[in-house]
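Support reply, case 0932

Customer input (verbatim):
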Amino acid sequence: MRISDQMLSNSYLSNLNKTKAKMNKLQTQIATQKKINSPSDSPSGTSTLLRISDQMESTKTYINNINKSRTFLGETLFVMDSMNTELTNVMVKLTELINPTNQGNLTLYTDQIDKSLSILLDLANIESDGKYIFGGTDFSSAPFAKSGDGTTIDLASNMTGEQKIKISNGMTQQVNITGRDLFGTIVSHSGNLDKSVAAGTVTSSSSTIYDVSGTSYTFNSSYTKTADNSYQFSYDILDGDGNSVYTAPPSAKELVFNANSGTLISVDGAAPSMSSIEVSDKKINFSLDFRGLKEKNEAAVITSSANQKTDIFNTLINIREDIKNGIIPDQAQIDLINNFTKHLLDKTSEVGSTINQLTNTEEMLINQMDNFEELSASVNDVDLAKALMELQQQDYALQFANKIASMILPRSILDYM
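Our regenerated output:
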């Protein structure tokens, strides 16, 4: 086959364009220090970089969530430590007051208890970045409010919301202590009801609750099976003489369980939540949590437990009013303050553990970011020394090709004139 001059010219021009394209690509890579400057440079590499970029963005979001939440938890910890300090001051004053020599000026101690109560209330309503620390997920109003006559502190019913953040793919972490959990009394029912029993079967439970003076009452409850997976819950509160504190029985509640999983799915037709139980004239106020109950094909076992005896605010108000009326606080009232202090320390430890867990998770996420950056660099970063060497080689090849071409390409008639 005869190789024509036209074929040589076409081959030369094709190789020349390829060399210039390589040089242009190398120059772009050297300027940007990136191997991939358009998807066509490496479709598979582009796909890898996009995947790594998505993972890095998600990881950055998790780290940002942790940083914000750790600040929030740090402020929570400070508030709880301040509360503990103020409660220590209260215990010092009450200890002084027990001594008869200090009982000559009860007004002074009344004022001191009232001042401590105000400090605790202010701390309980403190905000962080526009959020009430103990307000749950409702930030529209302060979670705790003093009544008009100053004789009670009302705990908002909507401060039970849990603030949760995403700290990894598929993993969340609660980052708040709800006001109801810290300051309110929550009686939790856990265990199981027997799925196999007939309608009309009653399962009973009994536990001790307290008013703000530390007086104990008996909380009796019963679950009556009404149909498959359905129960009627009723309750009563009895004083020390066995008499009901109610003039009429409280309204019963309808509980429905999932037929397959056995989990509680509704209370009076709504999603399961804590129910508030209050007897104002007896100064009894607590929440009942059914969410630990399940329905199983096993003998019924119901366990009742309370997070604390009573709320600290109304306990202090009751102590203040007693002192004002010349009544020295008794041991039962002091025990209520000690009970809350222990509860507060437990929750403080819980916050500290959460901070440590978030710190450990952040370190892991930062290590992941380092790995992602290294992986991205291995795919996309340019070896400058190697790229410069290749560019020099391509430039030499281009110059050499031009010199050879000038020798072998056909000459024009001008070369013979």
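We compared this against your earlier run and they match. Two observations from our side: Residues 332 and 403 are 106 Å apart (CA to CA). The chain has seven helices and 15 strands. Please reopen the case if you see a mismatch on your end.
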